[in-house]
Amino acid sequence: MSSTAATATAPAAPGAARDRMLPPSAPTPPYPQTARQAEFMALADDLAEFAAERAARHDRDNSFPHEVFRRLRETGYLALTVPEEYGGRGATPLELMLAQERLARGDGSVALASTMHLVIIGGLAESRAWPEPLFERICREVVADGAVINSAASEPDLGSPSRGGAFATLARRTGDGYRLSGHKRWTTLSPVLRYAVVLASVEEEDGSTGRGSFLVPMDAPGVRIEETWDNHGMRATGSHDVVFTDVAVPFDHRLPDNPSRPGAGPAAGGWTIVTSAVYLGLAVAARDFAVAYARDRRPSGLPVPIAELQTVQHRVAQIEILLLQARSTLYAAAQLYADRPEERAAIAPRFAAAKLTTTNHAIAVTDQALRVVGSAGLSRKLPLERYHRDVRAGLGNPPMEDVALTLIGKTALGLNPPPPRPAAATAALGSATTVAGGGSNGAEHDEGSPADSLGDAQSDT
Q: At what angle do helices 108-127 and 66-74 cross, to 10 degrees?
């Protein structure tokens, strides 16, 4: 490990040897509640340690952590949400959130990027919106080879797909399929993607133009990655531009349209808030660093560590309260989604509130942590400034703040009609709000799911 990377840790006790980059995860009652949850959390803790040892270097170099994703493949982590019948673990949104929170403590970029892939597979496993033979093939490749999938929606001139507008990327119908051409930006995981779900305008057989989504192998002739990603935060996500030039796509790789479903608006699906767990994990990492620093830091003019100062104690108390509020809101929403499937459409405002609360509180935690540590916290030799930068990517993850506030406010004011309540559990709801549904409606996809790329997380209004 380089000397720079070696310093990117929370301070150790004076004279003590430090074998781990990260402190042990603190208990987070009431979880884990099951043996599966405990297993996934422990696996994520191990992977977080591996990622943390390399995070500073990849952040500084703006490079993709290939070795970390190899480890994710080898441990089966990338197959967590693959259905059990296809060789995966069939993780639920709640189970995945518990794991991703811990993974983010090691490297927010790794956690966010892997979330994109895991949520697509998980949403499809729940909705079964794709033809089953196609979905099975993708799942088998994830399990056997660690294949990675993500969507490509954002474009240089489009802004956020959730705001409407036509895709400049165009699929022209041919005798044996389609020819796809266009320029996508901010395509997270592009250095390791096997498949991209490309949202595009479509020239239909009757001459009209609509929207569609297509499954495109990233090694197909005409696909080119332009290494453009150089952002303030989440620098190791590999969210580069992808250019498609006259790419041949067979008919059976056009994905099914998403039918309108109750609750298909912003934040209706449990998979949509998995990304929020990443930002909670970053906030926990900032808290852990600040606490360790305060316990160890003893300026020459002070006979005790700064942890003894009341001002520091009050700032740490504020951090603890913010984390408690964020965690309670986020996991209560996830638990409700798991326990009350018949209510999923009606509780959409809870998901919006959970995302908004977790993101804003996570940002506030990193601000307070910097106040505890002081100017030293801005040093690139310490990880706190990276947490501070990375957590701000959550500001743009759907639903955007104005969309979330409008949904919550209109619901409270009785301006949103109550959704119908089906007699059976509406397990397909998640698909209507994730790219996993394969829908042609890019606005549905972008508003209700984690961004197809980090770019949508930072897309414009």
A: 40
Q: Counting runs of H as helices and runs of E as strands, what totals does the chain give? A: 14, 7
**pLDDT band, very low/low/confident/very high, at 448 (cuts 50, 70, 90):** very low
Both tokens assigned to 108: 């927010």
Nearest 5 degrees, angle CA 313-CA 316-CA 321? 125
Predicted local confidence at residue 205, as pLDDT: 85
Token readout for 381 is: 């030799």
**Across the chain, what does the average pLDDT equal?**
86
- Judge whether 398 and 447 are in contact, CB under 8 Å: yes
Peptide bond into 383 cis (omega under 30): no
Cα gap 53→4, rounded to integer Å: 11
Q: Are 44 and 51 in contact (CB under 8 A)?
A: no
> Greatest CA separation found in the chain?
81
Q: What are the tens digits of pLDDT across the range 234-258?
A: 999 999 999 999 999 999 999 997 5
69 forms beta bridges with none
**Cβ proximity of 202 and 222 under 8 Å:** no
For residues 341 and 426, is the Cβ–Cβ distance under 8 A? yes
Which residues are CB-neighbours of 41 under 8 A, at least 6 positions away? 25, 31, 32, 98, 99, 102
pLDDT at position 417 over 70: yes
Which amino acid appears at position 453 of this protein? S
State both tokens at 460.
Answer: 């414009």
- Tens-digit pLDDT profile for residues 269-321: 689 899 999 999 999 999 999 999 999 999 998 999 999 999 999 999 999 99
Neighbours of 418 (CB within 10 A): 9
DSSP 303: S
Q: What amino acid is encoded at 173 in this protein? A: R
CA dihedral 399, 402, 404, 410 (to 10 degrees): -150
97: nearest Cα among 24, 196, 28, 186: 28
Give percent of the chain with pLDDT exceeding 90.
Answer: 74
Task: Find how far residue 381's CA is from the centre of its chain.
Answer: 26
What are residue 330's phi and psi, to 5 degrees?
Answer: -65, -50
350, amino acid identity? R
Which band of pLDDT confidence, cut at 50, 70 and 90, is reported for residue 19? Answer: low
From residue 309, alpha-carbon distances to 135, 294, 316, 342 in Å are 57, 9, 11, 50
Query: What tokens appear for 177 in the block?
Result: 């399929």
Q: Which residue has the higher pLDDT, 347 or 315?
A: 315
Whole-angstrom distance, CA of residue 374 vs CA of residue 394 = 24
Return the closest-CA partner of residue 428 out of 10, 47, 127: 127
